[in-house]
Amino acid sequence: MAPIRMIDIAVNFTDGMFKGIYNGKQHHVSDIATVLSRAWNAGVDRIIVTGGSLEESKEALAIAETDGRLFCTVGVHPTRCKEFEESGDPEKHFQALLALAKEGIQKGKVVAIGECGLDYDRLHFCPAEIQKKYFEKQFELAYATKLPMFLHMRAAAEDFCEIMQQNISKFSGGVTHSFTGTAEDRDKLLSFHNMYIGINGCSLKMAENLDVVKDIPLERMMIETDSPYCEIKSTHAGIKFVKSLWPSKKKEKYDQESLVKGRNEPCLVRQVLEVVAGCKGISDIDQLSATLYQNTCRVFFPQDLDAAADALLAEPIPLVPIGIKLRGCNDYMPALHLLSVITGNDRTESDTSDREVLEISPGVRGFNPPLSKSKLKILPFSCFFIKGHGWEENNSNISNNMSIKYFLPGNKKTLITISKDKDLQRMVNFIDEASTVDVFVVLEDAAARNVSNMPASRSSRTTISEAVVPIVAPANAAVGMNDGMDQLDIDMPDGTSLDCMPINMVDGKHHKAAQSWENMITGVDQRFNSFNEFREALHKYSIAHGFAYRYKQNVSHRVTVKCKAQGCPWRIYASRLSTTQLICIKKMNPTHTCEGASVKAGYRATRGWVGSIIKEKLKASPNYKPKDIANDIKREYGIQLNYSQAWRAKEIAREQLQGSFKEAYNLLPYFCEKIKETNPGSIATFNTKDDSSFHRLFVSFHASISGFLEGCRPLIFLDSTTMNSKYQGMLLAAIAADAEDGIFPVAFAVVDDETEDNWTWFLRELKSAVSTSTQLTFVADFQNGLKRALADVFVKCYHSYCLRHLADKLNRDLKGQFSHDARRFMINDFYTAARSPRLEGFQRATESIKCISPEAYDWVIQSEPEHWANAFFGGARYNHMISSFGQEFYSWVSEAHEYPITHMIDLLRGKMMETIYKRRVDSSQWMTKLTPSNEEKLQKETAMARSLQVLLTQGSVFEVRGECVEGTFVEVVNIDHWDCSCKGWQLTGLPCCHAIAVFECIGRSSYDYCSRYLTTESFRLTYAESIHPVPNIDRPIEDESLDVAVTVTPPTKRPPANARALATTRRLAKNPSVYVGHLDDLLAVAFFHYLCHVLISHHHSEC
Fold it and tell me: Which residue ranges does the record assign to the SWIM-type domain (predicted)?
């Protein structure tokens, strides 16, 4: 694909689909990182994550903070404006939005107020009056923050534009995104000079939509996906213009390498661009993308335009040679970078013979004499006249590769483009009575090279060193900048060249370093913010030019550097400018006499340097492999790294991005306090060992505790997962099930190992968190000390042995005695025995095992069936029989385990926060008494009940008859005890078909006999409380008191695998019988000899 740059102005990363959840069901793991990687590869430069409510805006900000190219909005969607009044204090809710917006601005992430507006297509979510009231209120947010507006308009153009007009003075500009209106609606929006229109797949459905889009001026348009919605479908009118395609698969067959069918993604903004180009008849898609990109920057990223202006001020951009008469010179200076504007009376284009060429004093960027309305008579734009080097024609000959730009008076940062007569008239209106105007002719490709692709934040201005890739000055001119940057001094050809190209240029195929680094050092008077910035620039400069250097002097206030080659005169001296913190190059000899390029390229490629190079890519692709790092560095910079160097560089880059793994343990006291401070009622505690090394950490958020006690079944799943982090460890978790059988994490802990002591400690902390008189049921393993720990801590609980762990143990114990097929039959019979609700079913299944192996039968009978078989178990498991129910939670752990411990815990907190919010929002739309899946189950049982016969009796016991394959069956239902002889009612919490037949017969409602834990009300109670963000998890702010007396060091790392194997082998060398007793003798001896030979260089004859 072409190397174009796009900004997707609307992505709903807070939507569950990007977490793998579709219609409340988990289909795959969260894949935002994969989605982002596809977007960056497609040419997406930045993404704005939209916020539609206070909580969603918080989440959007948290997501935006994960990548430097992500930004977000803060606001309330029109369909959710009821949240202002439902909060109980609309003004407090507004202030919370304002505080969040200011926080995001300070972090450089919030770029707009929104998504707000009016949506009359969905008044069932929020009445029109409430929408209008809080749409107008949110203009106050824009006014207070000076941010543009990100707007939503559906079937409400008249009211929308009226409110806009009433508040026109409160906002600087904005975009009405996802536009689907009529031509009349379009024109109303365009009547606001500061309003842009956002186009996505929903804007391109019908031929009528394409006609509307066709007449939107390019300079007032932006593009977006609004993903995961608004994709361009095969039925849309715009599909005929789509050229870029990606493979896709259904969510049920999820593949990281493919898009999810039916889910829009930011990479598909490329398709929107192609459809816009197609319907407008534009063949140059690169130029189109550049225009739309600039539109977006003008509204949301104005600092980019500042960076472009800085580039013009800081370094000479190659411009069209223009003939301008200089005072004191006898000839035209075609190298001068200024524009001559021809003035005169009303004449035709062809009549140019007596036009006056304005004289411009050397070194002054502007018109002389002063230019004012009274003096300048506006001619058609085509009458601008450029003289010199045969350019004796109007501007139409050069319009394809150059542009004319000017600065606003008193603003040397914002460049405005002149592209038509109206722009020229606007320039004169802006100038008013100003004495000068700065005008430039810019070659577009040169300007594009001169401005960095790196996104910048609103909170910190992009510096020249960040935003500009300098272009080498002409060989016969030296260009300097004065301190004010208000004047460009152009010396005559007696100056000295600044460029110091090495004798042998870097290999052309490594063009990235050559283009972007060869002018990191430009010469005398170049300034840097710090010595670190100077050293980094020098480092890159030396790599690009292929020479080695050494520090002759390297102290806190000055640095002297010389070429390492013997006798080479190249050297540079930099020191701190007095009374400032700036570093300035004072002296430089740019000449090399050495064979610089012959120096080994990798001599300066330290791990830290490589880490700084790969940092951004590692942020976008956390699974960036060392092998790929080495290949990329070699391809792009010509430097060969081995695997170990690449791996260590990755570790350094990861630490730069995520913080120190070691320091994170020392922050645990602060982190625990912040959890309890930001989430009152939460429990966060940790223990250390006698040597102050980390032992264990327990976390349970108040929202989890409250949700479990108020809405969840008294059922908890206990399990553990290994953490493959730098310092190893295990994560223990207590997971509950919500009414929809979704996971609900109650508590979790990080411990050094899975032991009985750690499980006992975890369960005691859990008991203090969820103290309840209700008898709890635990589904958990019976090994690793859990059996005894549960009995000690929760004395009266029900412990259901995890069926998977039990079956695995049975399979291991049978291995070697039976064939694979025989073991498979016995394991299947074991599961059948466990699930059978009645004693006779259990007995049939165990007898089948006995027929194969009496020993296996004895094993099953002695394995305490009262802890795992439905026929005997006394607790309420709701048909859940394995402890790995919380697999989704453990997948979150696997995504986060490579982060420092505080970041890992915070990532889990963020996932839980997202889940709680999403499920709360989803459940607000449910209209049934039971949750959707339970409602569906009940309806299926109700349908089956219609064929059953109920025999009426006195009291609460009924006989129910029906037909099945085996013949007639009879079940007994006791409605007072909520019991049926089939045991289905007791096992699931929902009435079985036999009970429902009784209820219909006696005129009662089935809903009255459903477990309260399966209702919509219980589901909403589960997710009623929110988990709040924990700020500054890795950087305590200075005024916060932190108990520095508490020092926590990382746990002792496990010895490497080969060291453990070596220790084992040496033990075996002393006593081989230890191993022989467990294996076949010959196999054991052979294995022992192999270990000795490989690990401790023994020959078998020496053993």
Answer: 971-1003
